[in-house]
Amino acid sequence: MLDALDRIEFITPLVMTRAPYDAIAEHFHALRTTLQPKEEDYLALLLDPLPAGSTILDLGCGTGRPIAEHIVARGHHVVGVDGSVALLALARAQLPEQRWFHALIEEVEFAETFAAVVCWDSLFHLPRAEHAPIIRKIHRWLVPGGRLMISSGGNVAGEEGFTDTMFGHSFYYDSLPPQQMTAVLEETGFTILRSEMCSLPDGDHDKGKWATVAEKRR
Ligand SMILES: C[S@@+](CC[C@H](N)C(=O)[O-])C[C@H]1O[C@@H](n2cnc3c(N)ncnc32)[C@H](O)[C@@H]1O
């Protein structure tokens, strides 16, 4: 159980075989620099209701750039969770006042609650059977009325999970189809505020991305 611990907490010697970001950390850091226009919109919907000084949980936070940086620039605190030591080290170097946890999304537990949760471009590295339990954890950690910004996608028709290559390394992906993702969120106790394809499949590496901002029902 994680609580208000400081800085990076190296929980276990994790090796993320499904998503080996440690091996591509420099490339990923160079690639992921700025928010996409739609990400700015989703973050506004997530953060606009919050008073300054709120604490936001970022599951699969990566280097903290650009999402945690944006959240901190808006006057909030970030608790970041990631399975990549190399990406977390970059996050800590950039934002040393925030709290960073080395843990797997599917295993991490918190004793505290959060004003909002981001789970952006990370859930899709886990098998779809694990998505609903993670969404139920997020719901438990959110305060009533707290909002979630989450992405999923893509999937390959007829297949549960597929691998693709990024900078010469193999990464696993899986997602629930959008209608099922929406159903899981609603059944868990969320009201959908906005959900849409934020990128369309390009017939190549991009299998399409489904974005949702949802609010925990009061
Ligand atoms: C595509 S990156 C997205 C990073 C960040 N959310 C962003 O939008 O820039 C995916 C992130 O999820 C992390 N990740 C993937 N699977 C994970 C798992 N099972 N537990 C914790 N982190 C995981 C990776 O280490 C990586 O930082």
Task: Explain briefly what this protein structure is.
This protein is α/β, with parallel strands linked by helices and 218 residues long.
Task: Provide an overview of this structure.
The chain has about 220 residues and is an alpha/beta fold. The chain has one domain: Rossmann fold, CATH 3.40.50.150. About 25% of the residues lie in helices and about 30% in strands. It has six helices and ten strands, in the order βααβαβαββαβββαββ. The protein has helices at about 25-30, 35-45, 65-75, 85-95, 130-140, 180-190; strands spanning about 10, 55-60, 75-80, 100, 115-120, 140-150, 160-165, 170-175, 190-200, 210-215. Helix 5 (about 130-140) packs parallel to helix 6 (about 180-190). The radius of gyration is 16 Å and the shape is globular. S-adenosylmethionine (SAM) binds near residues 16, 32, 61, 67 and 106.
Helix and strand topology:
Blueprint (H helix, E strand, L loop, with lengths): L7 E3 L14 H7 L5 H11 L7 E5 L7 H7 L3 E6 L2 H10 L4 E4 L11 E6 L11 H11 E11 L9 E5 L2 E5 L4 H11 L1 E10 L9 E8 L2
Parallel strand pairs: 1-4, 2-3, 2-5, 3-4, 5-6
Antiparallel strand pairs: 6-10, 7-8, 9-10
Helix pairs in contact: 5-6
